[in-house]
Every structure is written in C-alpha cells, then in structure tokens.
Amino acid sequence: MIRRVCSPVLQLLLLAFAACEPLADGQDFDREPAPIFRRSTLVPAPEQGPIPQLKVMAWNIKYGAGRIPFWFDCWGDRVQMSKAEVEANMAGLYKLINEVKPDILMTEEIEINSKRSAYVDMVRGILEHTDLNYATYAETWDSRYIASEGVGRINLGNAIFSRYPITRAERIRQQDRTDQDALTKTFYIKRAIGRAEIAVRSDRTVSAWVVHTEAYDNDGTKQSQIKQIHQLVKAETLPFVLGGDFNELPPTDRKSTRLNS
Are strands 204-212 and 166-173 parallel, antiparallel or unpaired? Predict the structure, then answer.
C-alpha cells in the first residue's frame, strides 16, 4: 500500500479551507456600510458658527512603525514589532494629533489586528488618547496569513476620525491590479475609499473622504483609481473634504492634481 503524506503547504491550505474564516477576504463588494466607533467617554467638541470652520489632518501612519526599517520599506530587515515598540510609536502619534487638534483626521495604513503591529487596535488607540470622539474604518487588507517573510495576519485599512458625530459611513471598492499572478492577487491589498458623513452642527452635515491609491502597479491601476475618485467627488452633494495618500510625487502628481481640481 502506498502511503501519501501531504506537504506542509497543502496541510496549511486544507486546514484553512476547513476553518470558518477564509485565508483572505476577497473584498467582494462595490459600496457598503462601514463600521462606526465611538470614544468610551466623549470629549465636548467646539461649537460651530454659521459657517463651520474645521481643521483637517491627513496622515499615513505606516501601521505605527515610525522609523523602524521594515524589509520592504526603508531598506531594512524587520518583519514584526513588539507591543512596546508599537505603543511607543503610537504615543508619538497621539502627542502630535493632540498638538494639532484636528476636527477631522484621515489616516492611511492603520491597523486593528495585525501580527506585525502586535495586534494593537490603532483605531481604538487614537479614539481613547485624543479628543476625537468618533471613527469609521474602511478595511482594505484582511488576510489570515501572509507568507512573505513570515508577515502573518494582516488587517489594515483607512480611517476617518471626527470630533463630531459620524452619522453614516461607507467604503467604496477601487479597481484591483491586473498585473499580478493569481496567488499574489489573492493575498494582496484591496484598495478602498472611506467616506463619512459628519454632523458638525444640528443643521449642517459635511462629508469626508479618505483614499490610498496603488503604489507599485505597472498597468495604470493608480490612474484608474484616481479617475474613479474624481468621478465620485464630482457627484457628492454635501460640502466635502478629501485627503489621503495618492502615492504620487512630482512630476507625475501634476496629472493627478488636475484630475482632482
């Protein structure tokens, strides 16, 4: 009798498919509601006059890594952080946010349940350590295990924070890259836009949009994503602010700026 033994990789795949949770969330949606979170104890927000004056801040927080040189960034070799490192870096973020005191904060590359950031919930962290009372999280990457360099579980996205109530929130899917093999595409980030409606007064609602477009494509995905953003905000009926990380530098950002003007 021939005895067949599954390879470790096959065993992992069989175990994953047998479990309730998929290996990676395919993000099969076009536009759907996003969760809204609230600070445990609300901080009174400034009263707004007839024409609301809002301070807005946008920040790619790099999953709380600060200047730690990761293997794919800053030419380093790090893959994971300790909880102490993440908390120290996040404390620096809280300090600057509290110095700026934004009414609306838009963050990119924020994580809530990732191995590389010691499973720290950064959305909850910002809510509890700043004067921002409400948040919404637009997940863009949810994989149980990333094999590359042993990265492990990833749950990353874009978030919008506000001193004022977020009354409605949604995430809007963006085009995926077409220049990747099927395996890479399965576990790769799925870009999404976050949108929140914010009641800055009882009779005045504004919208905030947070974006993080593609960085490494060779098939024009980023420009398609920017065009989609342009079309969406053109159709917006509320006063709005848009911010985030477009992954653009001069001179190529000029075309993006024209699209969004």
Answer: unpaired
**How far apart, in whole angstroms, are the C-alpha atoms of residue 245 and residue 225?**
12
3-state helix, strand, coil in the chain (%, to 5): 30, 30, 40
pLDDT in tens, 97-118: 999 999 999 999 999 999 999 9
Q: How far apart are CA 73 and CA 221, in angstroms?
A: 21
CB neighbour burial string for 55-80, b if at least 16 within 10 angstroms, e if fewer:
eebbbebbbbbeebebeeeeeeebbb
CA 234 to chain centre: 22
Those residues with Cβ within 8 angstroms of residue 103's Cβ, 6 or more apart along the chain or in another chain? 45, 46, 54, 55, 56, 162, 163, 164, 200
Token digits for 28? 């099969």
Q: Model-level pTM greater than 0.90?
A: no
**What is the torsional sign of CA 122, 124, 128, 130?**
positive
